[in-house]
Description:
The protein is of the alpha+beta class and 464 residues long. The chain contains 19 helices and 11 strands.
Amino acid sequence: MSTYDVKIWAIQEHKGKDPKTGKPRSTYRVRWVVAGQVFGESFKTKALAESFRSKLVVAQREGVAFDEPSGLPEPMARELNTRSWYDHAVAFVDMKWPRAAAKHRKSIAEALSNVTPVLLSGTRGAPAEADIRRALYAWSFNKARRDAGPPPEEFAPAIRWISSNTVSLNELRDAALVRKALDALSLRQDGRQAAATTIARKRAVFYGALRYAVELGLLAAHPMANVQWVTPKSNDEIDRRSVVNPEQALTLLGAVCERHPRLVAFYACLYYAALRPAEALHLRIEDCELSEDGWGMLRLSGSTQHVGEGWGDDINAVREDRELKHRAKTAVRLVPAAPPLVRALRWHLAEHGHAPDGRLFVTQGYGHGPVSKETYSRVWRAARRAALSPAQQRSPLARRPYDLRHAAVSLWLNEGVPATQVAEWAGHSVHVLLKVYAKCIEGQDQAARRRIEAALSRDDDAAA
């Protein structure tokens, strides 16, 4: 809490004796009142007392608010209560952890681990930067591992050093230091420029950490407000070269069937229903309405994310079940299942069944856990090598399983399905849908040219 109700008294001299020498000695006490509460500070010399009192008087005259708990002008109170960047970054992680998804927790740790080695108060006795980054990412910025006990022996020296050698938050008011931190976030560890989306994601984490300092009253204003640093533009549009046509999709699915038939229906969900891989991994038998002939329906209620051990609520789990992307926890998305997908799913259930919990796409053998990202990525790479020509393999065509989802959405749009309906099925907003898939809508430019040509022909006829 802060107030402008301040009264500053004159300096009082207190005469006494030095307890060690017994000689006469005076102390000088500054007293002032903030919101009815009396504060005081004693000094050995009158000059020090007058210097301190003058700071209070100047702050009062300039209309600076005083902090009620400490009795000091707010800038002085922030100096008194400041903490190091390392301590604040750890506090920021702890604040975000309970409500953040596991992948977001990893993203926060990655960004803070990249920027912290730049925000040093000194370098004497510093460990190697790679060791600092590793220790920060694996322990300091992982709340679950910190709560489990002290850092492992391999990280302990780096943690001890970095925890005592980062700048204070007040030093981040220096625009040059903030710019240096932002520049570090824009580079990969090999020194090359990072992707625009990566830079934007890491900058957002750093911005949020500093905003949290403002929220706590540790900084008066956001330091980035004074830094003219522009995040590189990212190209969100889908590369149309990555989009397969129906014939190519069938060829790829056939190649999968020859090598790993348990995953054919998994990839079919991505191509025929535009599911995200994580949504397909979450699919259960009760989510599927599969008619014997014709269309079916999928009721999507969540996603299964591969997050890595130590980042989810279960510290030993490598996967985490979450709600649908950008949806409430209880949200459900209905997606029609085209007849080829219905046939693929019915065949999958007849040949391979499902896990005890109803999940469709699981590992073979003990455990029945969701298929790993490594597995479905490896199978897809093998299918591309078998189904595509050497030139196509070098191209972006269906380079990732996710590109099958892009192909599905592009097909729907090109066949004239209204954008609002496509957005609902795909789990996008209409704005994002048209922004991302604008270049994948074939035939629109030719139709526009024909309309313009027809209009110009009418004008020429009228002039004649």
